Amino acid sequence: MFKKALLAASAVLVLAVNAGAADLKEFRVGILGGENQADRLRNFACLQDHLKKDFGFEKVSLFPAADYDGVIQGLLGGTLDFAELGAAGFANVYLKNAKAVTPILTTQQTDGSTGYYSIGLALKSSGIKNIKDAKGKKLGYADPDSTSGYLVPLTQIPKDTGTPNDKFFSATQFNGGHENNLLAAYDGKVDVAVDDSSGLGDFADGYTSGTFHKLVAKGKVDPSKLVEVWRSPLIPNGPLVVRSELGQEWQAKLAKFFTELPAKDAKCFSAIEGGDFKGYVPVTADNYKAIIEVRKQAIGG
């Protein structure tokens, strides 16, 4: 099941090894969803080159995962050693095994913050101007383990509508990742789609980072046809995590590598993170206590 998920076509990277932690010869880099497989492989090719050169690995392989769960199960099973997870994905891992992974870094937005938003987007032609206008309409989610594409809108939209989502909307559905979810709204298959966004910069650019930004940059959506109808409170950016069994030496090596990457290759940094960011900053599990508790209460961990 996990192998199928890795080889199928939903930013997240994962590194796995065939050697012991002291002498890693191969890094296997898995890329979680959000956009189509060809784009993900192209965006991560530069990281593949840097890892091989900087660490002298004999091989660096890229595996695009079909969904969040493929990465999560790999980390829990010990077959994957490094990942960039969303906050809810990390909460999932933590609740199942708090010692499985160690957070080391997270992304920092261009304004210096370390958070982002879940935003609700609808077609301007729908007449929906705010989330209350979407009563009795269809809501699209991204992935069950997504923070901005499920957990946060599941728990926060009802605070604005006064009604649980399954009662306020005529239907809710998962659309197989962030890109597919936004396209579902753009194509009229759902009325509102919730996805990740920096919420910074110009709406006409799809803001500075996130799924909306990537689809605008690729010419897949025309922002003039869309309207933002909902925005969540600030969400902590997800962590880059290292499988704890690798030990502190590799945690430090990887933290140094990624901290230096934005200055070393800004284009690569932007490609793997999906937009404009300032850089990486250190984090610990304590940064995600609130998300861990929300997931525990809402989904049962």
TrEMBL record:
Keyword Signal: yes
Keyword field: Signal
Keyword Signal: yes
Signal peptide boundaries: 1-21
Organism superkingdom: Bacteria
Gene3D superfamilies in UniProt: Periplasmic binding protein-like II
InterPro entries the UniProt entry points to: PhnD, Phosphnate-bd
Record Pfam families: Phosphonate-bd
Family: Belongs to the phosphate/phosphite/phosphonate binding protein family.
The name this protein goes by in its record: Phosphonate transport system substrate-binding protein
